[in-house]
Amino acid sequence: MAAATIGMLSSSSVHYSNRFLNYHSSISHLYRSSFCPIFHSHSAFCLVRQGNSIDKINKNCVKPIRTVAAATRMASPFKPEEARIPPAIPLPSSPISKFKIALCQLSVTSDKERNIAHAREAIEEAAGKGAQLILLPEIWNSPYSNDSFPVYAEEIDADKSPSTAMLSELSRSLKITIIGGSIPERSGDRLYNTCCVFGADGKLKAKHRKIHLFDIDIPGQMTFKESKTLTAGETPTIVDTDVGRIGIGICYDIRFQELAAIYAARGAHLICYPGAFNMTTGPLHWELLQRARAADCQLYVATCSPARDNNSSYVAWGHSTLVGPFGEIIATTEHDEAIVISEINYSLIEQRRTYLPFQKQRRGDLYQLVDVHRLNSTRTS
């Protein structure tokens, strides 16, 4: 199981060496993916120096797991290269540095065929206006409800998905990249909230299953539990496309900065979050979280919501938005149907990172972000 964990270290009590941080075999089990659940803050652990050993204390365990430390040398105060495990990947060059993105804020009904046809029309319109990357909303082919998910779910892997077939056809014929929002996916006896990414050749390049399920209970305002019907995804998703390296999250995933930080450390230019915030959380957090993720990671963030339907059982906030690498709002809309078209310029990422060089200022001696999925993949390759 993939996971991400932040280890908080005290520089006065924990001693690291380069060998230790290069995955010394004596502490390799610190990063076993089975130890930590998916990306939740409660999976964080602390490393505490005690004599010649290090205790790993998991908040869900009664007893710590003790390992022998291979290191004896005190880490220097500034170790930015050690703040990311494995080390962060430099921002890669993109096949294109400047292009147009379209955010298709669509109305959604109970008629699936209508929803698919409506999305087709929006994609064709956006491509006709020069968009090379198109982002659709979360759950655009189905009403957003636990009752609807099983009814509208499609088998993507079995090629029994009219929704993704349409996306594949259009990406190929229009020669564009499509981040296909999300749809309910059926796989065996499980249901997922799934985003499919199609390249300009029409091929499925990536599939992201929502990692953090939307389970909230705000008395008198909003109660919803996706976990009643949906299963959480197990891997972060980052994909190289004709318009750059893109990380994918779905709605509630945006609340977990660890996921965005992992995408940034993997060299993402852009993170796309199809999402359907509601009338309770939307006014408070929708814009705030987008700008925070963009500013923290110094990259572009794009979100796409369904249009608002006040007669729906779940009323979406709307306000699909593109945010730049300084946390600035580049383009947005209100709650009605709209196609937001704006320009992305990747050269601004390096410029902003020069202005505020976070990557060179992190304190690897005090804190670390562990990309467990990438770490395990490196070990097994």
From TrEMBL:
NAD found in the keyword field: no
Keyword tags: Hydrolase
UniProt-listed CDD domains: nit (cd07572)
Occurrences of domain CN hydrolase (ranges): 99-346
Cited InterPro entries: C-N_Hydrolase, C-N_Hydrolase_sf, Nit1/2_C-N_Hydrolase
Molecular function terms from GO: hydrolase activity, acting on carbon-nitrogen (but not peptide) bonds
Protein name: Omega-amidase
Natural source organism: Forsythia ovata
